[in-house]
Amino acid sequence: MTDRRSFVGSAALMLGGLLVWAVYFLFVYVFNALACARGFAGAELLGIGLVPFTIGAATLAALLIVAALGLVAARRARAAQADDVARFLRYTAALVALLSFVAVAWTGLSLLLIAPCA
User: Fold this and answer.
1) In this structure, are residues 13 and 73 in contact, taking their beta carbons and an 8 Å threshold?
2) CB 80 within 8 A of CB 90
3) Which sign does the torsion angle of CA 99, 104, 107, 109 carry?
4) Could you give the angle at the alpha carbon of 89 between the alpha carbons of 83 and 92, nearest 5°?
5) Pairing state between β 44-45 and 48-49
6) Helix (H) / strand (E) containing 107
């Protein structure tokens, strides 16, 4: 039973960054499409457009979650007295989190620079 828990935990940690990016990507594009289809793309919140404000908030939240996952994976990899396979999986999880961080930032940047419904 311990092996299964460690496998599930390792898999969740390794794929966590990609899952956060996928959910973020889906949310941002669906929200933007709904804003265009329903006609609230020009709405403002606190003097900022609703779509850029929401995308910015979602980007910040996704970046914080992915950064936390990466830090957890990196700390576990450094502190592990485990075998080489476990260390490899933890370092891979940290690298995947770093790549997911870049993917979230890239997606957020492009959507913040392009006007909705352009």
Assistant:
1) yes
2) yes
3) negative
4) 140
5) antiparallel
6) helix 84-113
Where do we find the tokens 């990196």?
Answer: 74
For residue range 19-62, list pLDDT tens digits in order.
999 999 999 999 988 998 888 777 777 887 888 888 989 999 99
Q: Which token pair is 14?
A: 């390794």
Report which DSSP code applies to 40.
-
- The Cα 55–Cα 46 span in angstroms is 14
- Which residue type is seen at 37? A
Q: How far apart are CA 3 and CA 65, in angstroms?
A: 26
Q: Distances from the Cα of 90 to the Cαs of 49, 101, 103, in angstroms?
A: 40, 16, 20
Q: Does pTM surpass 0.90?
A: no
Q: CA 79, CA 55: separation in Å to the nearest integer?
A: 36
